[in-house]
Amino acid sequence: MVDPVRTSDRAAGGVPPEGAPAPLLTMSAVSKAYGPVQACADVSMTLNRGEVLILVGENGAGKSTLMKILAGAISRDSGDVHIDGAPVDLGHPRRAMEAGIGIVHQELALAEDMSVVENLFLGRERTRAGLLDRAAMRAEAAELFAGLGVTINPDAEIASLSLGQRQMVEIARAVSLNSNILILDEPTASLESAARAQLFATLRGLQAKGVGIIFCSHHLEECLDIGDRVMVMRDGRKVADRDAAGLSVDDVIADMLGQEIGHQYPPRDRAPGAVVVATQGLHRAGHFDDVAITLRAGEVVGFGGLDGSGKVEVARALFGAEGFDAGTITLDGAPLPGGWNPARAMARGFAFLPGERKTQGLFLDESVAYNMSFAALRRLAGRLLSLGRERRAVADKITRLRVKTPSQTIAIRGLSGGNQQKVLVGRWMLREPRVLIFEEPTRGIDVHAKTEVYALIGELVAAGSAVLIVSSDLPELEGLCDRVYVFRRGRVAGELAGDAITQPAIAARATSDTNTAQRPSDAA
């Protein structure tokens, strides 16, 4: 039996009051199936001018399929789509673009070796007398960025821009195509707080001009900040469509899962053990300076701060993935040996999960089993490689970590982001690590998978591991960590512990030049 759709008064039925203008967009009873799998089932949706509609749901809920239909990437099996009351056929991306629909994907589609202006006008270059009119394109680009409230050099190479700036280039390109409907897929997944604030200011400006925005994200707190209405999908169907005002994160989670999720973060009622890793005076020219931190057994420590603050580079230096010029790193009180690198770090019990799991952590065309076991093959094999021992160890971790996969032999690219992340955790659990370093541990995964990853981190800490979380997700730092070091301009701007770890406190230390807060003692 299909759950009834939960609606607010304004959103009920998606039908405007009598005499009101037609919605900018109406999708009615849209369905799409892949063989026996019903990806979207009779989904109806409206979007008004100047409205931010939040579209949420777990991975596999159908929201990506619905947006692909709207963007012309795939064809619907049935149902109707109207823009400004007129029917439209969106069977191809160009037709969707001509209908005024723009999309900014999570994985940005920019040519990094080309300039900003070349990316903006790729395939539709401005010409005069048969020659490229670079001056006209630069002027148009400057006007676009001014309208969005951002400053970006049109001649800069894309590779030189921050992630936030690249995203603004994508949005500018969509706006330049006269898009009245803008779809944003996980727009803040890789953004720091300052870039998120800039993005939200830009979206508010587009709203004021009447652009309708569909905002797809797993970051529920910010969804409720930016959104006017929240539409929730589950198992291919729309299950809720309500005003954002007055909704809580727990309300949205309950709609997504069909049940209350309980506590998202594991309890922090643990007593940390001895110091395992410590740094003193750690320095790398142009990246970080005078960094002193400690990691204890049975404790979760967080690194917070803006993009470029040095937090990522310090974490990678601990693992030997990046170097340092001066200072010391100690393990169990003894300085690390010279030539510290990832291989030596792994041999001493370190583990590292990169933020870009698809490009830096996974072998996408290899099997689930290979991705989980390759870092522990010597441990599993002894003198001779035992395929049976490997399969049993992988099967044990798949069961323990609740990895959803039809087989350990299928290519890992077929798994959801949350299950891919759990495979990476399993990889290091096979090595029984003493120190685990996570970069953005829940980037791009849904709320239920986040909770499972947090539970796994809790289990690792309970077993005595020291865990370091490098995260741009302030709620994650607040809910998960025992202590948080906040970085600013390559230095530790403050250390927070226990109840002092709050989102405003982290943000203040990450952005303020004058921070007089006393740091807690690092004494064991």
From TrEMBL:
Residues 1-21 are annotated as: Disordered. Residues 11-21 have a biased composition (Low complexity). Keywords: ATP-binding, Cell membrane, Membrane, Nucleotide-binding, Repeat, Sugar transport, Translocase, Transport. It is found in: Cell membrane. It is a peripheral membrane protein. Residues 25-260, 269-514 form the ABC transporter domain. CDD domains: ABC_Carb_Monos_I, ABC_Carb_Monos_II. One of its GO terms (cellular component) is plasma membrane. Its main location: membrane. This is ABC transporter domain-containing protein. It comes from Actibacterium mucosum KCTC 23349.
